[in-house]
Protein 1
Amino acid sequence: KIDIADLYRKSGTLEGKTVTVCGWVRTIRDSKALGFIDLNDGSGFKGVQIVFEDGKIGNYKEVARLNVGTAVSVTGTVVLTPQAKQPLEIHAAELCVEGASTPDYPLQKKRHSLEYLRTVAHLRPRTNTFSAAFRIRSAAAYAIHTFFQERGFVYVHTPLITGSDAEGAGEMFTVTAFDLDRLPRRENGAVDFSKDFFGGHTSLTVSGQLEAECMAMAFGKVYTFGPTFRAERSYTQRHAAEFWMIEPEVAFADLDDNMALAQDMIRSVIRAVMEKCPDDLAFCNQFIDKGLLDRLNHVANSDFARVTYSDAIEILKKENGRFDYQVEWGSDLQTEHERYLTEQVFKKPVFVTDYPKEIKAFYMRLNDDGKTVAAVDLLVPGIGEIIGGSQREERLDVLERRLRETGMNEDAYRWYLDLRRYGGAKHSGYGLGFERLVMYLTGISNIRDVIPFPRTTGSAEF
Ligand code: 4AD
Ligand code: MG
């Protein structure tokens, strides 16, 4: 038995050999005594053509009647076909139906809309677009681990259930092990979570950063790669309620080191995916985003731009006429502003640094101007923000003040403050939204189409 991807890789040595391949029928056609199947097993983008002939296989009539979607295993001879579109085919000697499919199979041989395919998320990995997207997703995940492992980072696992809000933005999903109706209520009617499973209010994590900081203060260089959850009510193409994040955290590193690491990582992941998934990317380039390969090639080989938030605001203010939301110093950047900066002004990925402290999280290091923090967002064409990061506030007194200013419960962050009490050091890190990276790598414009089973506001089917 051999994967179809290996069949192509080793085609030179396989001529005339007998092999077995297993997969799902993408298309099937027959005329009287000769038929053809395009068989795909997901090991690579390309399927293989199976030729079946009456007399050469014992069950010709049964096979000729098969529906698209059927699972089969085929044993036959490899025949090289250098003059044809595909370099080889398999002439079946035995074709075994592993699992039949019915004529109402939801993926017929025509182009289905992405909206329709979202309604059959359990089957859509068998289409060209989604098999390409999810193979690229897999290759990108592997490339990220490789990147950090080769540089001596320790992969740390941070908890998904947590008692603290890492972003201080109040966008957390509550976790409870009891029937809400049976939990005791306080006098004001609020549920008394102190009687809950954990004996306190717990949520799904929005970021592993604060725990990653603890680990960085022991290992120096660490990264997380795991799911995170946000109860944002954003009906956009780039927000999901459950998404994966990569969060490196580095001790003794400042904001410049942080940007250098982010640029290095993005470029090295692009190169790795281009090497590992050329067929998948070629498909995306042809059918999803015509400029994709040129763009990725360019980004993999050039430096990203840099601009401070204050300078970015000066640029944007002159263009306020074209935006739905007008900006001034102090405004949070909306997707339209982010995309204008990266698509029209810089025409490549751009790091925006030093945002006003009011629009960023409490843990970011206060700059000497007392107004801005050492924050950095990476914006890319077509999407906007894909990375958010910062140098962290390592000064205990400043951090305590920031916690108070932002109205956070200091008690819940005792352990976090301890990091500044016992051998604190300057340190920096960032979070890369993995789905947004996959969107960037494939040209796919909706986050629902780069994660197998998307969870977004109002929808968590399957
Ligand atoms: O900018 P964010 O909120 O930063 C943090 O969570 C920091 N604690 C990271 C760190 O410094 N360790 O989120 C980081 C990235 C964003 O740039 C975006 O790419 C992605 O996570 N992201 C989302 N992706 C999909 N759906 C959502 N709802 C997302 N929210 C953030
Ligand atoms: Mg952000």
Protein 2
Amino acid sequence: MQKITIAIDGFSSTGKSTLAKQLAKALGYIYVDTGAMYRAITLFAMRNKFVGVEKENINALIKLLPKAKLKFVFNEQLGFAEMYLNGENVEKEIRSIEVSNQVSRVATIEEVRHKLVDMQKEMGKEKGIVMDGRDIGTVVFPDAELKIFMTASPETRAYRRYKELLDKGDKVTYKEVLKNIQNRDYVDSHREFSPLRRAEDAIEFDNSDMGMEEQFDRIYNHSLRVI
Ligand code: C5P
């Protein structure tokens, strides 16, 4: 069977990564969560106190970028890859609300995007990959054989994310999560470099009223028709 590239883009908390992970597993493909890469660079910036919007902070972060070494390491027990920053497993820290509140700003920096897009292109050279993010179908793999653009209402997404964070023991309020999602939607779709938008040839998929199983079945069957 020929291997293809599958690009999954969409707004925050649309369930992209859950679906992409399941799809990659079923097809025997590699899964790459590009959001984790932007989150790890944000954590790196926060640890070095370079997160402000001021030009000095941005320039200092750009200068220090070569020192941020990112790596995905597959965890056999969990069945997916975890993000390492300079040799340290940062999977938990990069999902915190503090990082979520800063990540979209860091993701507007052109040099950060170049560094990460180059790494992503390299990872997908051999195809057989499912990658999720905001610019995968438009910038990283404009020639991907299958492109999916996922949407759901901000309230539905905030509720899902809120429940997820509560389950993990994070003390957050629904209002705080909704605000974070709305802010990220705005920044992600209005930034100058590779803003979030649906690629013309992407299939739009609104999952506001759809369970995970139905979503997976539909997309899996569709991908088999493309392969
Ligand atoms: O996918 P996730 O919500 O973890 O992504 C976190 C943030 O990283 C997004 O809100 C966006 O600002 C940024 N991002 C991006 N391009 C990608 C993936 C994520 O700008 N390909």
